[in-house]
Amino acid sequence: MSDPHAHGRMRNELDAAHPSGAMMLPGSASSLRSARRITLAGLAVNVLLTAFKFAAGILGRSQAVVADAVHGLSDMLTDVLVLVGMRYWSAPPDEKHPYGHRRIETVITTVLGLALGAVGLGIGYQALVTLDVEHASVPGWIAFAAAATSIVVKELIYRATVAVGRRIKSAAVIANAWHHRSDALSSVPAALAVAVAALRPSWAFFDHVGAVVVGVFILQASWKIVAPALGELVDAGAPREARERIEAIAMATEGVKLVHAIRTRYVGSGLVCDLHVKVDSETTVRQGHDVTERVKARLLAEGPEVLDVVVHLEPYVGPAGGGPGRKKAGAPLDTSGTRPTDGPGSAHGA
Q1: Among 1.10.260.40, 2.40.30.170, 1.20.1510.10, 2.170.270.10, what is the CATH number of 4-233?
Q2: Considering the entire predicted model, what is its pTM?
Q3: Tens-place pLDDT, residues 193-215
Q4: Which of 28, 75, 222, 312 has the greatest number of C-beta atoms within 10 Å?
Q5: DSSP string, 299-350
């Protein structure tokens, strides 16, 4: 089962650029162009760098650098997957998919993470089973040069890709950025292993150790990608901070006496939520409808990446002689209640 804290960490990546909701809409033409440009740039870099590392690893007799090149090959495949996938997840809602196609992005993110994990396991296994194989010769410095170049270039492409991913709120682009960073990180032990083996030929086995460390780095990156994506696929709710923000926005809306039964789930990088609001029991149907529309409008404009809202209306009867019945600061967040059914007094998000 996925780690809820990991889901929150990935959400922090998504919130970093535009915490107030002033973001480029997911699936918009401009966001797709940005995602396509940075992914194509990453693909071009990966092709050149992977070819260089393969050649340098073979000529320099370094298993760690060849393993690093295999990791780069996986980055090329994930770039292609993102390029193909964005064509589908950006499609508008239709009769069969009334909530849109954003879950395709989540599925692709999961596939990216699992593919990365498989590469890490393969690299680690190969290094371990050949650990006692004696090297015919020590790794050469060309292998070190390839690994060092990879560290610098892949860190730069990571920074560029993750900046675009945060700006357009795309989990798949951010996941692809982490493929670039994991490549940069995995090149560090590869470079160290080559340097140690070249300086101390009797320690040539260190090249295998470096490949194992590369595999561990890759597995860690894989989990950071897969865990939050799995959370989305099983309809994990938003973090507590996001639910409290939704409640605060709704409570600050004119006419709302109480908010409860807040429920959320992610669709791609956005939230779909439903909640119950209580209004004065003497409120007319028209007035109550206007209140729910105001709540919906505020949550769409000010909420934490809210894409759609369903607001259920209920009459409020306060305690005798009591105030408006709002929650005290610090009171537990109410997310209880059975699944509401649609009916009179409900406002549905478009």
Answers
A1: 1.20.1510.10
A2: 0.59
A3: 778 777 877 776 776 777 787 78
A4: 75
A5: HHHHSSSEEEEEEEEEEE-PPTT----PPPTTPPP---SPPP---TTEEE--
